[in-house]
What we know:
By secondary structure, the protein is of the alpha/beta class. The chain has helices spanning about 15, 25-30, 60-80, 100-110, 170-180, 200-210, 225-235, 245-265, 290-310, and strands at about 5, 20-25, 40-45, 80-90, 115-125, 150-155, 180-185, 215-220, 235-240. Strands 1-2-9-8-3-4-6-5-7 form a nine-stranded mixed β-sheet, sandwiched between helices. It folds into two domains: about 5-245, Rossmann fold, CATH 3.40.50; about 265-313. Residues about 265-285 and about 310-313 have low confidence and may be disordered. About 30% of the residues are buried. S-adenosylmethionine binds near residues 196, 197, 224 and 243. S-adenosylmethionine binds near residues 53, 194, 223 and 247.
Amino acid sequence: MLICTPNNSDQMTPASFLDQIVCGDVLKVMQQIPSNSIDLAITSPPYNLGINYDNHDDSLTYEKYLEWMKQVWLETKRILVPGGRFALNIAPTSIKNFTPIHHDFSNQLREIGMIMRTEILWFKQTMLKRTAWGSWRSPSNPHILPSWEYVLVFSKDSWALEGDPRESDITADEFKRFSDGFWYIPPETHRRGHPAPFPEELIYRLIKYYTYRGNVVLDMFGGTGTVAVVAQNTKRHFLHIDISENYCKIAEQRLEAAKVIQELPISTGKPGSKIVIRKDQTPRYEKLEKAQRELVLQNRLLDERANYLTKSI
Ligand SMILES: C[S@@+](CC[C@H](N)C(=O)[O-])C[C@H]1O[C@@H](n2cnc3c(N)ncnc32)[C@H](O)[C@@H]1O
């Protein structure tokens, strides 16, 4: 894997972009990806809310922002294989100036000919921390605060994605659980210096549900590399794009750590130290099935290893 800023004139080849972290502007990089080469794109775009990402102006006019996003959707459609999927995570924005950005995006994507398959409701239960009630206990102007986000899912040209059935690795239990479109997944708490990272569980579900082993998964606004890490862990290929060199470096460290952990599943990277699963951190741990316990353990190891690597740099 390498960090690079490709030059505008070169077209990438599948060999040159598989399992790469590419640090550069989304459109410039996407324009170099060959058509019909990505099986699943998953992303959460910058929200244009003036969020302090490392290296990006997040405060365009809304019209300019939508125009920019439309260019990204057009490139996404071009590079997806027929039947390839696009999972777009988006939250309803702002309370007072409510903007139904998820409607605007789904309209744009349908206008360019993408098939809208579904919308998944990612319930985060963040209400406990709320302060903005509007007119408290009065109908004069009370506020509704969304405690969820959407994952809008689209297909290019066809509903079905061709693939070798032997490379389908979702279990019956996972298939049943993920097919219910109401997903309760707590938000990511381990931020690694990023304002809006994905929880790994969200990406795990999308990758297992919508791809075969060996498929290529892209995140064009990859941030700290959650999609790349989960793709690697689940034996898919990845392509990660982000404009921030800092986030790309964090993504690279996470991938490296995940690889080490997969190769040495009982090592924390610290000689002699043993992982202890603290019940307060994982209250439901005792009730989990074996495969889920391993996942919890693996995530914990991943975080431990990432901390260790970050501290030692
Ligand atoms: C909502 S965040 C994605 C976070 C990611 N899902 C994660 O798990 O870390 C949006 C990302 O878009 C990146 N970004 C903003 N403008 C960009 C551009 N023009 N080209 C590529 N990436 C850009 C930001 O650096 C930020 O990391």
